[in-house]
Amino acid sequence: MPDESGQLWSGGSGGGADRRVGTRLNGAPGPMGPFAPGAGPDFASTPAEKKAAANTIETELQPNTKKATEHADEATGAAGKGFDGWETAIGLKTVADTWDQQVKTLMGRLAGEKTALRGASSLITGNDTGVGDQLRTAASGSKLNGL
């Protein structure tokens, strides 16, 4: 089947059947509308939803991650003591150190996401206010210049 340019595109493993190849820009309406299914052109969440997500990170994810880490450290430490003098104890220590580093990275990421969520609403509002001020200044300046 020819495309818009009149070229034929044949399907490779499709048994020789012709296939149409095209391009669609991100955000352009497709079979299910613009953007992701169920999403619209507005922000994905409200300021209240961002605040709730930040609170969930603070009150659930961070403390529960810390508790799980402490539990894993205790269990791994006890197992390591049981294998004292064996290579397994050294392996458990290596795994525990790697785990602790990964948890540290995760906790840092959670803290960063929490801060970003809490700052996003004020940043967007501040940007909107700033652009509005610039537009008002430009509009009053053009009136002064006779435009």
Automatic annotation (TrEMBL):
Stretches the record annotates as Disordered: 1-83, 124-147
Domain of life: Bacteria
Chain intervals with Polar residues compositional bias: 56-66, 137-147
Ranges of compositional bias, category Low complexity: 27-41
Name assigned to this protein: Uncharacterized protein
Record organism: Streptomyces lavendulae subsp. lavendulae
